[in-house]
Amino acid sequence: MTNSAVYLDHAATTDLNPAALSAMTEQFAHTGNPSSLHGAGRRANRVIDEARTKIAGVAAAHPTEVIFTSGGTESDNLALKGLFWNRTEKNPEARSILVAGIEHHAVLDTVAWLETHENATLLWMPVDADGVLDLQAAEELIEANHERIALGTLMWANNEVGTIEPIAAFVALAAKYQIPVHSDAVQAFGTVPTDFAASGLATMAISAHKVGGPVGIGGLLVRRDIVLMPVQHGGGHERKLRSGTLNAASAAGFAAAATAVQANLDAESKRLSELRDYAVQRIAQSIPEAVLNGPRDALNEGKRLPGNLHFTFPECEGDSLLFLLDMFGIASSTGSACTAGVPQPSHVLVAMGRDARSARSVQRFTLGHTSMREDVDILLEALPEAYQRAKKAGMAADESSIHTAGTGFTR
Amino acid sequence: MKVLAAMSGGVDSAVAAARAVEAGHDVVGVHLALSRMPGTLRTGSRGCCTVEDSNDAWRACDKLGIPYYVWDFSDRFAEDVVQDFVDEYEAGRTPNPCMRCNEKIKFAALLEKALALGFDAVCTGHYAKVLRDESGNPELHRAADWAKDQSYVLGVLTHQQLEHCMFPLAETPSKAEVRAEAEARGLTVANKPDSYDICFIPDGDTRGWLAERIEMKPGDIVDQDGNQLGEHEGAQAFTVGQRKGLRLGRPASDGKPRFVLEIRPKDNKVIVGPEALLAVDELRGIRISWAGVPIPAVLTGEEFDCMVQVRAHGDPVTAKARMERADGSEVLVVQLPEGMRGVAPGQTMVVYQETRVLGQATIDSARSSAWDPASVL
Fold first, then answer.
1. Domain containing B168: what range?
2. Which residues of A touch B158 (CB under 8 A)?
3. Does B165 qualify as catalytic in the annotation?
4. Residue from the list B28, B33, B103 with its beta carbon closest to the beta carbon of A406
5. CA angle, corner A208, sides to A203 and A209, nearest 5?
6. Most buried in the list A330, B75, B118, B241, measured by CB within 10 Å?
7. Which of A315, A308, A306, A290 is nearest to A383 (CA)?
């Protein structure tokens, strides 16, 4: 499916589930706008309705709580802006947002936009060295500011280091003052249990392509008593929260993929976490200086995403390692890159207390439903040499040892 | 060979990479991110590390069927090129940031990383030649097309750096041919405008850019005899040879225009005088490097005939040069029998014999036998 023989970047996107492909192929052949009132429209609407019901089932939500969007980023935008605008409309004083520095850019940049353009105040909640929310600090922030807090946001699981956050405990703290909480569950949904009804969350963002569905569709789960101000206006689709003609084929693909992962969730979680821990142990032996970032979870107790491996490889640029592994046919990730493709120091690691220099020396390997033991073995074989070479290439910020005209010159 | 093609997003580097691929090398394309604010949009023909340049480089690599990466050298670029540029101007000198980038970034930071990661050479779209002598040592020569020749900005490369350079455009008769070749190869950058000016000053306003970074103080403009003629708003904003913008109320006694002869940041003085005094006949260069194995006269200290060029597109002039060693420091002393006009300290002089680049030095002082600047106190 990819140009890489060994694909270890399933957190970026994963292989299309065959069930999703066949569901979409079938629907692409049909005409019909789900909003139309004739037979073709009703047929398309049935596809949407069935998809909505299936996805709600996987997320433990009511079907009316599922709002289809274009993906995780749009869902985060709709939730955060929608909650903020709705809350401030009722109480103009309530402009503070509880947020942690480990969030995905879809959340970080949205709250930063609200700060710049809507006069929001960001209350930064600290995380520990593993990236887990500091609940005591969060509680103190809530106690001191609850009258001014519009909403809180906490990702279910971190996309870089795989840390699973204490959603229930955080929601409980916020619930004391009826503060609505949003969660970006894009990485968690379909990988670990994400029970929306039991969570007490106001909203939860999910995405199709992370679970084997198509790119370009996602969902926002919106609790029935929650009112959001829409971001996108038009024909009033999706409880008037998200206008735009619904994509029946993609919804069917999303539902098929979500259903498939749900059916296999426990077994797959066990399989991937064993594969993950096997790699953690072997890397600890072959590269003793490598540091595993995020919590250890040898018993698969739900502290870390089962398929996530994230290491700091000291004194080497993440992009050097990525390049060398890519040359071996192994696909990995350094974290986030800007629009020009420039690798950035990981803001997640910085939030976890690491310095900017070491935050550039990271590499993420994420396993998914097509990952096999052989994939991990190929990585384990290539990694030590790649690391030695990458370390030799040094850090981009350091002065080169190449002899140049200016070497030794002092002004 | 494993070749790293440095891809700027322009037509030259794209065609250079294409030729390296065609020559049978194992090529990987790398775009350098040099700006602290990546992801901005290109305006006109200027800008570096823009989304367009990165995309254009990616599309060229995709067309050539080679992998593509963006590597971040923004920290080193900020220190070695941008800050150096500011420091040099602050000291009253006129630096060439493109040379510094070749010296410190493309053929040092990038080259070192490339070698460590298993590459044998860095390939760029520069118009220059690397030839080998009988013993196999590299020599740097002018490109076939003298109008496009870029050997001047590469004059700073050392033996070690030249060992790993690849310039596939060396023998190209003209830029038009490169564009035609790009078109024929289906490269979308075939008609992209040439970049010029300084990439990190996007609007091209060097003076305005410097004024935001250097503290400018008003001071005196004096003539070659030390007479005060007027005031300036900051000595660092002037360049040797400059005529316009002096705003002197009083005309010269002979009625002829006056030119900037010297900038003295320490006294915050700008010295002006008649055109005749712009001519210098001796250059003293420091921070010397040799492009490959130095010729014997360099080591013996004997005088040798050469041609000297002080600007990227300046004309080379006849010269006699010799190495002077004193107190452990080396100075390249160059006599110019025909003289040279408007040379500023900080500029690089590249020394040629025929087409070969012997080496280079940074001009520390430029003297005229007609006028001793020390006479102005």
1. 2-184
2. 403-405
3. no
4. B103
5. 135
6. A330
7. A290
Question: Alpha-carbon distance B147 to B176, whole Å?
Answer: 12
- What distances in angstroms separate CA B68 from CA A291, B1, B4, B34, one per listed residue? 28, 17, 10, 16
Q: How confident is residue A362, by pLDDT bands cut at 50, 70 and 90?
A: very high
Please spell the DSSP secondary structure of B304-365, one letter per residue: EEEEEE-STTPPPEEEEEEEEEETTEEEEEEEEEEEEE---TTPEEEEEETTEEEEEEEEEE
Number of domains chain B contains: 3
Residues with Cβ within 8 Å of residue B303, at least 6 apart in sequence: B297, B320, B321, B322
Question: What single letter denotes the amino acid at residue B241?
Answer: G
Same domain, B54 and B137: yes
Per-residue pLDDT for A341 more than 70? Answer: no
Taking the Cβ of residue B374 and every Cβ of chain A, the question of whether any pair is shorter than 8 Å is answered with no
Chain position carrying tokens 């503070």: A96
Closest CA to B243 of B220, B268, B275, B265: B275
Other Cβ atoms less than 10 A from the Cβ of A237: the count is 18
Q: Rounded to an integer, what distance in angstroms lies between the CA atom of residue B106 and that of residue B162? A: 12
B247: its two tokens: 């705003």
Instruction: Give CA–CA dist A384/A319, Å, rounded.
Output: 16
- Copy the structure tokens of residue B325: 């060693």
**Could you count the other beta carbons within 10 Å of the beta carbon of residue A135?**
16
Q: Which two tokens stand for residue A308?
A: 């996530």
A155, A296, A128, A145: which is closest to A136 by C-alpha? A128
- Please report, for chain A, how many H helices and E strands are present, in that order: 12, 12
CA separation for the pair B54, B39 (Å, rounded): 9
Burial bucket for residue A74 (CB in 10 Å: 0-12, 13-18, 19+): buried
**Does residue B122 share a domain with residue B42?**
yes
Q: What pLDDT, on the 0 to 100 scale, is given for residue B43?
A: 46
CATH, residue B255: 2.30.30
Q: Hunting for tokens 């969660």 — which residue is that? A: A183
What confidence tier does B195 reach under pLDDT thresholds 50, 70, 90? confident
How far does A66 lie from chain B, in Å, by closest CA?
A: 35
pTM for the model: 0.88
Residues facing residue A96 across a β-bridge: A121, A149
Q: Residue for token digits 């803001």?
A: A347
B267 and B281 both lie in a single domain: no
Over range B34-40, report the average pLDDT.
62
- Residue A196: name the closest of A222, A172, A227 by CA: A222
B106 DSSP assignment: I
> Residue A409, Cβ neighbours under 10 Å: how many?
12
Residues in chain B within 8 Å Cβ distance of A333: none
User: Which CATH number goes with the domain that contains B113?
Assistant: 3.40.50.620
pLDDT tens per residue across span B251-262: 777 778 889 988
Both B162 and B245 in one domain: the answer is: no
Query: CB–CB of A403 and B160 under 8 A?
Result: yes
- Write out chain B residues lying below 8 Å of A337, CB-based: 70
pLDDT tens per residue, range A119-147: 999 999 999 999 999 999 999 999 999 99
> Chain A contact for B230, CB < 8 A?
no
Q: Same domain, yes or no, for B66 and B113?
A: yes
What the block records as the tokens of A21 is 């492909």
Q: Residue B76's closest chain A neighbor by CA? A: A397
How far apart (Å, rounded) are the C-alpha atoms in residues B349 and A102? 52
* Cβ atoms < 10 Å from Cβ of A93: 9
Contact A52, A59 (CB under 8 A): no
Q: Are strands A203-207 and A181-184 parallel, antiparallel or unpaired?
A: parallel
- Do B87 and A342 count as a contact with CB atoms less than 8 A apart? no
Tokens 């002080």, located at residue: B310
Q: Identity (one letter) of the amino acid at B260?
A: V
Which residue is it, tokens 């629907």? Answer: A27
